[in-house]
Amino acid sequence: MKMIRIIGALLAVSLLAGCANLSRNIDIATGVYTFATETTVPASVVIPVANSFNILKAGATNYGRYCIQQKMKPWACDATFRRNVIRAVRMGTDARNQMTGSLERGDPAAASVYNLLVSAVNQLKSSPAANAEFAGATP
């Protein structure tokens, strides 16, 4: 009987310790969510990245035209490259459009949306669409 009481007490202590850890984990998750949704980036940082995206998007448009004209034959027109370029252009355009409204109002942009735009810029820079052959022409 004494052994059952000891096991019960140990079980109760371990359950309470688990609740304390769960509460702490919830607090950490709430903090991360708050940080991700409420952190902002000033316009002085956003505008150069948005301009870089616009230039790269023009190159990506010309890249698409080039691949169509060449009937998708050059190695640079591989389906994987084209999909990555299209995905980056769509993601960057959506992010830029979301930030445009806040910048026009003079509000800083959400850091999470800014990070999407930076990611799109980096993806386009590492793609064949960033080749000087495509970037110089007007879309």
Q: How many discrete domains?
A: 2
Specify the structural class. Answer: mainly alpha
Number of E-type strands = 2
Low-confidence spans = none
Radius of gyration from CA coordinates: 25 Å
Shape: flat
Summarize the helices and strands and which ones pair or pack.
Layout (H helix, E strand, L loop, with lengths): L1 H37 L1 E2 L1 H27 L9 H26 L4 E2 H15 L6 H4 L4
Antiparallel strand pairs: 1-2
Helix pairs in contact: 2-3, 2-4, 3-4
Précis, in short:
This protein has 139 residues and is mainly α.
Description:
With about 140 residues, the protein is mainly α. The protein has 2 domains: about 1-40; about 40-135, no CATH class. The chain has 5 helices and 2 strands. It has a two-stranded antiparallel sheet with strand order 1-2. The longest helix has about 35 residues, at about 1-40. It starts with a helix and ends with a helix. The mean pLDDT is about 80.
Key attributes of the depicted protein:
two-stranded antiparallel sheet; 139 residues; 2 strands; mainly alpha; 5 helices; 78% helix; 3% strand
